Amino acid sequence: MSITKQYFKQNKPLHKQTVVITGASSGIGRATALAFANQGAKLVLASRQKEVLNEVVEVCDRLGAKAIAVVTDVGDAQAVKQLAKDACLFGGTVDVWINVAGIGALGEFNSIPIEVHDQIIRTNLIGYINGAHAVLPTFKKQGAGIIINVNSVGGFVALPYSVGYAASKFGVRGYSEALRGELQCYPGIHICDIYPSFVDTPGPEHAANYTGKKLKPMKPVTATSKVANTILKLAQEPKASTLVGGMAYLARLSALFAPNITRYSLVKIMDNYFKQAEPVPVTNGSIFEPTGSNNKISGGYTSKIKTSNKAIKIAGLAGFAIGGLLALRKLL
Description:
Layout: E1 18-22, H1 27-37, E2 42-47, H2 50-62, E3 66-71, H3 77-91, E4 96-99, E5 105-106, H4 114-142, E6 145-150, H5 163-182, E7 189-196, H6 203-206, E8 208-209, H7 224-234, E9 241-244, H8 246-257, H9 259-276, H10 309-331
Parallel strand pairs: 1-2, 1-4, 2-3, 4-6, 5-8, 6-7, 7-9
């Protein structure tokens, strides 16, 4: 296949690859670690929680993989460089680097301390840049390597009351695009972005919450395993951009063709939710320190209603048609 399509078949089998996963203690990161462990990959697992990481390593070992835990704050550039060095020492090389670690905060912009906005940008955006900066010298020497950035549909659609998070996710998309262009002379190096819709992880419980209301993801929610399996596939067949979940496609089209309506609708949805949601105390969540609780793969939010692929395609076409009509209307 043509390199211009940013797509190729990885010849090196997964059980011979060394894979680094940040944010591996829970949610998407933990699910991804187990998915690669089932393939026998050498795993270098990173997060801020030593005991939890060791638990994940034990599970991966039982699945037949070789894994190590490296406690890392991705916002610390030197710590991420050390993570890359440890990975090379452990595996002899690094084949895949997966940026998953992320944090978030929900609340009215000025109700969220500026230090929290700063920490979100540092983790979600600078952390991803730190990862690429640390591993790319190795990839260039090898002439090959894959960076997979777990973004979000929030990289296309800015969710109200999450300014820092939205800025970080839009930023990740920009960093990836710029870096992908710069690396065109290295056809064996691939920068892959994955954009899931709302995912069934413990994220809402770990998030900083300044709304005073209990947080839940918008339904339908994508299963964490689906995201992990998509990442697994990208490690063998890298593509520049991948959306996961029917709602991701709809949100992307809506933001592209009807941005004003999308923005207005999201504010209404959020405001109505806050009026009805159960009250809870304000918390910093895991912004500055891990909460140390609920480090599971799933958050228990998965929708019981299954939508067929046909229904998703029909909905997507409908969304595209509506968006196109709205755009045409503005031109007339």
